[in-house]
Amino acid sequence: MLVGTVFFVLILELANSAIEAVVDRVGTEENELSGRAKDMASAMVLLGFIFAGFVWLHLLVFR
């Protein structure tokens, strides 16, 4: 379970990198939607880290 959460965060980080690469590839000019897409991808990774932290804490404390 603990290793699974680490892989989950790594998968989210790969998705974040892919989204950022696509947004950067589409154009170099500033665009509100491009910024929002990058922010949402970063938030996805943050939520994954928080989830992983709760799983680790739960398993280490209540085991």
In brief:
The protein is an all-alpha fold and 63 residues long.
Largest sheet: none
Unreliable stretches (pLDDT < 50, length at least 5) are none
Output the radius of gyration. 15 Å
User: Which sequence of SSEs, written as H and E, runs from N to C?
Assistant: HH
**Residues in helices, as a percent range:** over 70%
Shape: elongated
Let me know the average pLDDT.
93
- Helix/strand-derived class? mainly alpha
E-strand count: 0
Distance between the termini: 12 Å
Q: DSSP helix count?
A: 2
Content of β-strand: under 5%
Show the helix and strand layout.
Blueprint: H1 2-26, H2 32-61
Helix pairs in contact: 1-2
Structure explained in plain terms:
The protein is mainly alpha-helical and 63 residues long. The chain is 87% helix and 0% strand. The protein contains two helices and no strands. It has helices at 2-26, 32-61.
Please give a handful of descriptors for the protein shown.
single chain, 63 residues, 2 helices
